[in-house]
Amino acid sequence: MIARCGMDCSQCEAYKATCENSDVKRREVAEAWTIEYKTEISPEQINCRGCTSDAEKFFFTESLCEIRKCAMEKKAPHCAKCPDYLCDKLRAFVAEAPVVGKTLEGCETLKDKWKVAG
Question: Of 41, 81, 87, 85, which Cα lies nearest the Cα of 61?
Fold first, then answer.
């Protein structure tokens, strides 16, 4: 499953912990993300079935992710299908997480546009 930003949910530790229903993994992810993102994250918050799912989502994904909000407003399943693809907001995210750019690049319909823009 590909998130709206291009992230591969199957590689996300919160997604894996949720799918495995593992409280041990939720605790490990919460501890790691608390350090990485310099904010308190509890194991109870580590529940996510992906940002495109109708099921539970990580609180950041559900409420704070500007890329997700933007894609939803534009009714795009992911950013590569957005008419404003490769906007400044996404470009900044891809700079931080190049793997999402590679995922979006894999969308055949925008492969050439990515190479020009990127």
Answer: 41
pLDDT number for residue 67: 92
Asked whether the beta carbons of 28 and 42 are under 8 A apart, the reply is no
- Distance set, CA 67 to CA 38, 51, 80, 115 (Å): 21, 11, 12, 21
Residue 91 backbone dihedrals phi, psi, to 5 degrees: -55, -40
Alpha helices in 1-118 (DSSP H): 13-20, 23-37, 59, 66-73, 88-96, 98-105, 111-117
- Residue 31 is which amino acid? E
Residue 47 has pLDDT above 90, yes or no: yes
**Which residue matches tokens 């990127």?**
118
Contact status, residue 105 vs residue 79, Cβ threshold 8 Å? no
Q: Could you tell me the residue ranges of all domains in the chain? A: 9-117
Q: Is the pLDDT of residue 111 over 50?
A: no
